[in-house]
Each structure stands twice: as structure tokens, then as C-alpha cells.
């Protein structure tokens, strides 16, 4: 697998690869997750945006379209991972991955499937919580919250996730930029658009 290093600077232009300045220490409240009152999380949503991806010494970028409906999802990545386009979806208990070379793979665990095909180890089933600014409910961790009550940093499952550029969509407060780092991988996501379906 070879990612295209030359694509990474494109994300710099979009403001995706630079971490946000952390607020002053006295403006931050550090809470265990069982003490944090998380905001409401939408069950049905779609996001589009751009992502910068790193694993070890390799890096690349991709356009992202992610549609989530309860536990079902479809995640489309365009332009990375050395296999061209990727389409990952979960329907009931089955995960299907289609690659840019026309191959289709089926499994029950999305993380194991993605790692086996691309070599990338991402906690896919947890990312659907993190991307909306929420913790995975079955895992412990720590939240850092600013004076406005917004989550600015989440530590969970050996990952650190940072957030900024919040926006209110249909009554839900959702992040516009997300940085996630853990287990030798980094993901930088700049959200272009959120759509909420009630």
C-alpha cells in the first residue's frame, strides 16, 4: 500500500492539518466521561468533507462522504489508501468493503476488514461517535470542555480527539474540524457540510 504524499498539502489550504490553539488552562474543565453531560447526538446524519490521513511514514488525502442511520452506515473515501476509491458500508450484521480496483470484501468486523485490505487500523465503529463530538458509550475516558460547555478534547481507547469550529445544525451542535490521533495513525477531518435527518 502506498499513499500519495504529494496530496497532503492540499489539506493545508483547507485548514485541515493545523491543530487549533488550545484554550488557556483555567478555561478548561477536565471530566471523566461518567461526569460529563454530553449534548444530544443525532441518530441519522450525513457529512461531507476532506480528510488528511497518516499511518507511520505514509500519508494521503481523501474526500469523505459519510451517511449514518442508527447502526447502519455508508462511508465513501475518494483518492487515498493506495487502492483508489473505498466504499465501506454496514447493513445489519454484515460489513461490505468495495475498493477502487473493483474488488468486494465481506466481513462482520469493519476494523478488521479495513486493516486486512488496506493495512490501516481505524476503530470504525467508534469513529461514528467521535466524529459527532461524542464518546463511545461503552468505553471509559476523559473529556475536556471549554467555558461554553463544548467538547474540545476527548481521550478514549488510547486515542486523542480534538474539536473546533462548532456549528448548530437542526438543534444539534456539531464540530467543523476534527483531529484524531492514536495507535500510530492520524486523521484530520474538515467537514464541509452536515445534514441531519429526523
Can you describe what's shown?
- The protein is mainly beta and 198 residues long.
- The protein has a single domain, classed as outer membrane lipoprotein receptor (LolB), chain A.
- Helices cover 11% and strands 46% of the residues.
- The protein has 3 helices and 14 strands.
- It has helices spanning 8-13, 110-118, 124-130, and strands spanning 29-32, 44-55, 58-69, 72-78, 86-91, 94-99, 104-107, 141-145, 151-156, 159-164, 167-169, 172-174, 177-182, 185-196.
- The strands form 2 sheets. The chain has a 12-stranded antiparallel β-sheet. It has a two-stranded antiparallel sheet with strand order 11-12.
- A hairpin with a 2-residue loop joins strand 3 (58-69) and strand 4 (72-78).
- The N and C termini lie far apart (39 Å).
- Mean pLDDT is 86; it is low at 1-15.
- Keywords: Cell outer membrane, Chaperone, Lipoprotein, Membrane, Palmitate, Protein transport, Signal, Transport.
- InterPro entries: LolA/LolB/LppX, OM_lipoprot_LolB.
- It comes from Spiribacter salilacus.
**Distance between the terminal alpha carbons, to the nearest Å?**
39 Å
| The CATH fourth-level homologous superfamily | Lipoprotein localisation LolA/LolB/LppX
Which descriptor suits the 3D outline? globular
Return the average pLDDT rounded to an integer.
Answer: 86
Cα radius of gyration in angstroms: 16 Å
Report the strand count: 14
Strand content: over 45%
Subunit structure: Monomer.
Main location: membrane
Pfam families: LolB (PF03550)
Membrane topology: Lipid-anchor
Amino acid at each position: 500500500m502506498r499513499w500519495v504524499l504529494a496530496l497532503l498539502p492540499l489539506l493545508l489550504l483547507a485548514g485541515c492539518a493545523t491543530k487549533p490553539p488550545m484554550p488557556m488552562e483555567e478555561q478548561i474543565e477536565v471530566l471523566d466521561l461518567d461526569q460529563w453531560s454530553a449534548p444530544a447526538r443525532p441518530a441519522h446524519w450525513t457529512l461531507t468533507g476532506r480528510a488528511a490521513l497518516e499511518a507511520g511514514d505514509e500519508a494521503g488525502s481523501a474526500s469523505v462522504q459519510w451517511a449514518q442511520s442508527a447502526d447502519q452506515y455508508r462511508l465513501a473515501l475518494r483518492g487515498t489508501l493506495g487502492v483508489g476509491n473505498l466504499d465501506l458500508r454496514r447493513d445489519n450484521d454484515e460489513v461490505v468493503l468495495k475498493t477502487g480496483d473493483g474488488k468486494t470484501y465481506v466481513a462482520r468486523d469493519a476494523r478488521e476488514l479495513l486493516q486486512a485490505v488496506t493495512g490501516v487500523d481505524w476503530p470504525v465503529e467508534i469513529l461514528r461517535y467521535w466524529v459527532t463530538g461524542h464518546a463511545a458509550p461503552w468505553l471509559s475516558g476523559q473529556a475536556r470542555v471549554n467555558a461554553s460547555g463544548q467538547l474540545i478534547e476527548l481521550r478514549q481507547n488510547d486515542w486523542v480527539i480534538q474539536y473546533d469550529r462548532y456549528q448548530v445544525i437542526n438543534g444539534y451542535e456539531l464540530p467543523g474540524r476534527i483531529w484524531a490521533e492514536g495507535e500510530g495513525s492520524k486523521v484530520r477531518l474538515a467537514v464541509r457540510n452536515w445534514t441531519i435527518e429526523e
